[in-house]
Structure to design on (224 residues):
């Protein structure tokens, strides 16, 4: 059974703080993704990684960075949190199988920036 | 224009009804398509892949029309447990990147 875990379900931070969101998957997936989900906007891709130490910008990378030092772990970093980064953050992973690429999601982290 | 567009709903239907959702995509280079289901306050999970020939899984049928660039999901004999948000998803290009629609909310009532 594929399992994607995220370090926190709920997080409250203050404006300007550095925030780390951690994601771990146990299925040896090559690809890992970070999304944010907001009402009316759906899931939007922030960053993704298709290999260790590799990263690609998604659709909304501004204000975020990522780190992938090990295959199973993908971290999202908010260098200086702002109130407009209050959102639900979802991590996902998938095999790299070309067209068929089901993504498995973690339970999400609801981040509130005050 | 969004790459993947869906009617947000909500669709309120009685138990036992048949309901259909459509989704349109703008990038003709999109290669494969999926329907994901997301329960309230839960993560999205794959419901089914969408093949050009159409595919069926129990009460669920998915269709793809490449000429008109739309995808459909049909749910027959709706159950209360079908209440959820259904996300239409397109795969375009390389690197396994998916583009999600904003979802259609379904509420099945007694």
């Amino acid at each position: 059974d594929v399992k994607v875990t995220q370090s926190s379900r709920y997080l409250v931070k203050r404006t300007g703080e550095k925030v780390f969101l951690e994601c771990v998957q146990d299925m040896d997936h090559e690809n890992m993704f970070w999304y944010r989900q907001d009402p009316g906007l759906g899931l939007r891709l922030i960053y993704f990684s298709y290999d260790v130490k590799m990263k690609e910008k998604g659709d909304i990378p501004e204000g975020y960075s990522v780190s992938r030092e090990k295959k199973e772990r993908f971290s999202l970093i908010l260098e200086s949190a702002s109130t407009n980064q209050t959102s639900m953050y979802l991590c996902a992973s998938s095999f790299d199988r070309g067209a068929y690429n089901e993504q498995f999601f973690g339970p999400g982290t609801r981040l509130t920036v005050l | 224009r969004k790459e993947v567009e869906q009617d947000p709903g909500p669709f309120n239907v009685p138990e036992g009804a048949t309901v259909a959702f459509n989704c349109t995509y703008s990038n003709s280079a999109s290669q494969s398509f999926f329907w994901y289901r997301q329960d309230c306050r839960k993560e999205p999970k794959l419901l089914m892949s969408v093949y050009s020939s159409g595919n069926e899984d129990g009460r669920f049928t998915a269709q793809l029309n490449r000429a008109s660039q739309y995808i459909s999901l049909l749910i027959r004999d709706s159950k209360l447990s079908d209440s959820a948000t259904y996300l239409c998803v397109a795969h375009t290009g390389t690197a396994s990147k998916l583009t999600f629609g904003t979802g259609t909310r379904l509420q099945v009532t007694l």
Chain A touches chain B through 24 residues (CB under 8 Å).
